[in-house]
Write a structure and sequence with these properties.
Elements lengths: L7 E8 L4 H14 L6 E6 L6 E3 L2 H10 L4 E7 L6 E8 L2 E8 L2 H19 L13 H19 L9
Antiparallel strand pairs: 1-6, 2-3, 2-4, 4-5, 5-6
Length: 163
């Protein structure tokens, strides 16, 4: 078990969120990437009005299909909840992704996996620039120069060494 160190906190928000199914995909991605094995999961619907809680994403998804909800909080973590906890909070077309804990590696991996799913839904790419394509023109020029030099070397009079 990891020793508690400085606690990390990460957070990001999206407005205009409508696709609740993607939130469940993001929660599953966080569980897998953590890895949170076995995971703890708590989903609370309408906490501010008439709270209803379940312990699995499957139960939560089924409840969501049958009922209209105003808000939903999904909290996933490993057994040691303080190590790394990822929360997906949905209310009024606003979605907040946050992570907290002291196990930076698992917490960051889980957060990044959920963030990638959510950002991909909006068509947002990561901040990492893509690798540039190979410059085949430069490679061809280098190859031609090398071939010319090799041909010139072959045509050098080998009799120069005898003098």
């Amino acid at each position: 078990m990891l020793e508690p160190m400085a606690v990390f906190e990460l957070s990001e928000r999206w407005c205009g969120w409508r696709d609740l199914d993607v939130i469940f995909v993001a929660a599953r991605a966080a569980i897998e990437a953590g890895p949170f094995d076995p995971p703890l999961c708590e989903v609370v619907f309408d906490e501010e009005f008439d709270p209803y809680a379940v312990d699995t994403l499957e139960e939560a998804h089924e409840h969501l299909r049958r009922n209209r909800v105003r808000s939903m909080d999904i909290v996933v973590s490993p057994i040691d909840e303080d190590a790394a906890r990822v929360t997906l909070r949905y209310a009024g077309e606003r979605l907040q992704l946050s992570a907290r804990g002291f196990d930076w590696d698992r917490g960051r991996a889980a957060y990044d996996a959920a963030q990638a799913v959510l950002a991909g839904h909006f068509g947002i790419t990561t901040f990492k620039l893509p690798k540039l394509p190979r410059d085949t023109v430069a490679e061809t020029r280098k190859r031609l120069v090398i071939e010319e030099l090799e041909a010139a070397l072959e045509n050098v009079d080998s009799g120069l060494e005898d003098r």
